[in-house]
């Protein structure tokens, strides 16, 4: 019942705004009603939410943030045994590096995409509150923390941190290649020493 009333009220405000394009108060009332409805989009019924088809993608984009401390694939920190520690640390490092690489590739794709309407600027101008769906879209279109980058020095620091993570990734990758070759050698010649990863 309430949703029907809201739909009729909004329709009446839209019709009034279209009929009186020079009446600022009518225009503001209509815009306010639309924005108030938009704020409640997360509780819209199934198949009626904006971006619903993309919710799983948006959740994934949120989780890809390399600044998050919780790993993407490993749900929580597990207390490893002495022998597992290096392998679990490698998995956590790979997890973070994978997020960095995916985020970088998405940033580059967004940076080279054909420019369209700057909906982000429009949303900011309309004072639409931050929400997970918009935050993920903004992140995809503008890159992680781009709004916070206020100088070349900040960007230089960010890029150096990314390169450091990738260097760690390369080091662990080489160790894993060595371990795999040792395992293969062990299969070919059973007396070969046990393989492992450096701590």
Automatic annotation (TrEMBL):
Name recorded for this polypeptide: Uncharacterized protein
UniProt source species: Caulobacter vibrioides (Caulobacter crescentus)
Lineage, uppermost ranks: Bacteria, Pseudomonadati, Pseudomonadota, Alphaproteobacteria, Caulobacterales
